[in-house]
Amino acid sequence: MDITFVILGSVLMLLALIGCVVPVLIGPPLAYAGLLFLHFSKYGEFSIAFLIIAGILTVISSVLDNVFSIMGAQQFGGSKRAIIGATAGTIAGIFILPPVGMLLGAFIGAFIGEISAGKEVFKSIQVSFGTFVGFIAGIALKLSATFIMIFFFVLELIKN
Prior knowledge:
Layout: H1 2-21, H2 27-39, H3 48-75, H4 80-96, H5 100-116, H6 121-159
């Protein structure tokens, strides 16, 4: 059973990395679940304080990911359509031209969202840029939190 937990934890860590850039998956929560699987096996033991801190890091990074996208759009006067467009564009871009398509999709999706809201072209480009920057900041934050948890996962696994 312990080996199964380690394997499940490892798979969750890999999915967490993917989840940091794919909006459908939730990166940091998957990494946290991976830590828990290792913790409940004989191959890893984290302190309660560490698990609480990692849990707080997970919640903060997940919440701020959404806040950054919204702030990026709002900073340039964007609408809710820009955020929806950026998310839809990212998902479409993953399938059309990975990984570059994901980034272009976020920008183009936000632009289309703003144009559909009746904004001018120049204003839509500005909002797209702001949404794109917020989106990238959210990805960077999720990757940072996930890499921290992966680091401690691997460290604990090697130790035991």
